[in-house]
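hey team, just a heads up i'm posting the complex here instead of the shared drive bc the drive is being weird again. everything in one block, sequence lines first with there labels, then the predicted structure for the whole assembly after. its two chains so it's a bit long, scroll down
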Amino acid sequence: MASGKVSTRRAVPELLAHGQALIAAGLPEAVDTLLQPYLQGGTAPIPLWKLKMIAARRQGRLEEAVAIQKMIVDTVPGDLPAHYDLAELLLASGDFERGWREYRYRYDLAHTKILTRHIQKPRWNGQPIPGKTLFIHDEQGFGDTFQFLRLVERAAERCAGPVLLEVNAEAYPFACRAYPHLTVSKRGQLPPAFDFHAELMSLPASLGLRLEDLPGSIPYLQADPERGRHWEKRLNTLLGAQRPRVALVWAGRPTHPNDAHRSMSLQDFAPLAATGIPFVGLQKGPAAQQRAPKGLKVLRLDEEIQSFEDTAAILEQMDVLISVDSSPIHLAGALGRPAWVLLPFEAEWRWMAQREDTPWYPTHRLYRQERRGDWTVPVARIVADLNALATRSNGSDNRR
Amino acid sequence: MSETPTPPFAAPTMTLPEALQRANAHWQAGQAAQAEQLCQRILASLPGQPDALHLLGLMAHAYGHADRAIQYLREACASPTAAPIYWSNLAEMCRQQGRLREGEEAARKAVALDPTLSGAWNNLGILLQEMGQYDESRICLEKVHAGDPQNPRVLNNLANTCLRQGDGETAERYWQEAIACDPEYPQPYSNLAKRLTDRGEYAQALEYGRQAITRDPHLTEAYINLAAAEQERGDTGAALRWLNALLSFAPSHAGGLATRAHLLLKQERLEEALSDAQKAVIQAPESADAHYALGLVQQALNQGEAALAAFEQAVDLPGTKAEDAAIAAAVLHMEQGRKAEADAAFLEIAERFPQSVSAWYNWADIHRFRPEDPQIARMEALLADPARLPKEQMRLHFALGKAWLDAGDPEKAFAHFAIGNRQKRETFQYDPEETSRWTRNICQTLTHERIQALWNQGYTQAEDQPGQPVFVVGMPRSGTTLVERILAAHSAVTGAGELSALQQVLATAHYPESLQTASAETLRALGKAYLEKTGKLNPKTRYLVDKMPANFFYAGLIPLILPQAKIIWVRRDPVDTGLSCYTKLFSGEQSFSYQLDEMGHFARNAQTLLEHWQQVIPASHFMVVDYEAIVEDFDTQVRRMLEFLGLDWEDTCADFHNTPGNVRTASVNQVREPLYRRAVGRWKPYAEYLQPLLQALEQNHAVDAD
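-- predicted structure starts here --
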């Protein structure tokens, strides 16, 4: 009759602190146990549901996470970061329609608000605008730009008017080669006048991109032929007739929010030594200097790589790129070059869930962690696949 | 990243027009940093340059720095060469910050400088709309609409003004046109939600409100409109959830705070309501809505003077709340017994807001209509207007019923009452059998034996502690307000009005089933919870009277959880009570009182419970007083009640109608008069109109005789 049970219950802030600590410690299963008595009635404060969603997602229970997150968004629709979380979950589960719609809240997060670009012209929603100029501009990491540049052609067809394309300086030469008929400018320069604008990653929503529309025409980017000739010579000198030619990237940009989970250490690749293959190290940044494990031969090119122009030209000469989830993966995919991608247990939305292939890049193969933080299983699978590749390559060499 | 921003003022030879053109182009392309650097360089060499100041203002506005933006625009407009559009933009920024007067001035300046500037007419139009000057607003917006007929924003603004003018049909048409022009534009959906709520189409209103939020999850009005729709269809919990959702992302939104204060007030969560209303006033000192909400809360907290001041401030401020606030002030006069002031205030309101149904409805209650009273014709004319909303029609029917009864034409009166009651009855679900089942259940659970078994286990407070509970219960309109006023005239008693405290405490208690097994601990917890709620009213006297009539359902439980509590049941001729209920549109929930047969059914259940309680509750805790006996022999009955409470006679009790203090129930005007006998047997001349009630009451006797 009365409320005698309340005394045994814990206050919400205390529960949250406990749950967040468990998540941070990599114990999402314990969060399920912790929250069970509070959530079983179906009504609980929203912060507890958010915690439950994170615990479900961490454990790979995507469907459950989507259901919880939908409920959260229905209850507190003004919580824009919750919309963004929902977008990631939906895109990961392949629900592109609502997923891309919710993705528009990517600039409403605490740390992205300041990045909002206030363009004083209306946003293009995919409608035909004959005679009007559309300004398409890229946004976030290099990888995003490489991944989504494929949509510019479709946008140009759909809007039926002139298109201005603006990308970061690194992607600029690729965009110029891919879209010689468009006016391309570098980010930061004053673009010509325009009537409508679209962020590059709003194009999926504007175009109504469906999963079955992927990958589109591959390759959609090309390496610079002159750089290509330079690297062909250089790699022939370095590697001779060695096959297969395998490039290696072991870490992403260290400032990426999920870098601790996605980046590896060169030491993690020790089992690759057994293949006897000399690896071409494309690693840039501070991780480039990591010591190689015993017996692993890494030809480090970081000092010779000035830009993605070099990376692309090298990838053209490689049989496969082995890499963590970082921008060279996307560059390889756009060039139509194969890559084997090492993914953390909780991978980004773009790699979806469970599958070993990706609809974005038919040339790629995914190697997922089966346990959080444990790279041994995916690395062992890579060793096996490398051995198979070596046998095939050398077999064909023998026949030659 | 190797970005190479073009250095501003790169060429030393760049002229001012070139630099301005370039700054603008950067801003158009969303390159704020470059645009700002150029503006600052221009201002360094040409202080006060209006075009650079204006551009800086636009950028500050886009980045959410409202005050800085307005400051830049004021400086830009201070220049004699300021373009008309700068004034127009200043006007809109002021409007968004609630600085309506400054905004209006700026907009007028803009259209004076350039009468062809349609954006300025638009901004002036919406400013005037927010200031309640609808006719001029409509002229401005029609002008803009004529030049730009497919603009969804203009259509939406125009529709808003039409609605405020009372032209709801045109408004709806414009909103629908706006949606057709741009289905992704959220505002018309939100406004239609509000309109459909007014029309009583709640399901559709909720759908439109959700559509608005899907398009813009931060559209604050949509949350307020959704809350209103939920509230109107009777789901206060859902209404509060929408407001909480709004305030979770906009914690200082004055409109949201003011609206939540209203709802919390309805739930008698006065402290929370006060806190919200005060925050709203701090956030938006020029918002009439905020002052109005604060006034209502202060009124409920018995802070009459402060409430009156808040209402008067709301009347004076620009905005659309003047009418409600003026009525609230008049009602406050009425509640505090200042009948002449109330009458004068209502007359003034009727002149200033001739379309105000609310004013007429409240006034009819205190005004005594004569047979040829011209005010009746004015109300009939209001009712005949086809634009009248269903809710307004209902209120006018009740007001006209009252008026024709005063004027001695019961046939016309009851025709109005019949329609008004039917309209009200159609707005909710009610099953009279539910009450019968509950009544039987209570009688079977709280038997004499059970009450004895649970006796003296509840929560006791110290004898000298003020605020000992007295419950005055009975049928609504049976004289409970009268008894409360008589008691409150005694120096040892405070009247708290109708409290929902007991219902709130018992909300999850599963009454009466749980009493089969309840522990002493549970009983004490409930009693304590009740006293904690009434303690917040800060009673200074020995007794505090809670006169929620419907507490009669809990009369047997009350002494179990509060062994010191006293209960007084006021009994009155059920037909007189029924007649009185039937002629009132209650502000709270009285589901049984809008259909005569259901009223009779309910009265029978009340009678059953009364007889049961008389047998099982000791006379030390429960007494019955007859309304008719009070009228017949006042002193004797008052002495009985005072004796029951252990109090000595005080002469002020006989003079209760002159006791200051608020009366917050439907009986507000009767208790301000000395006792009147005409209410005894009042129903007899109207018997022919009350047949279903008489039949339902008679069935009772037949059943009892079995």
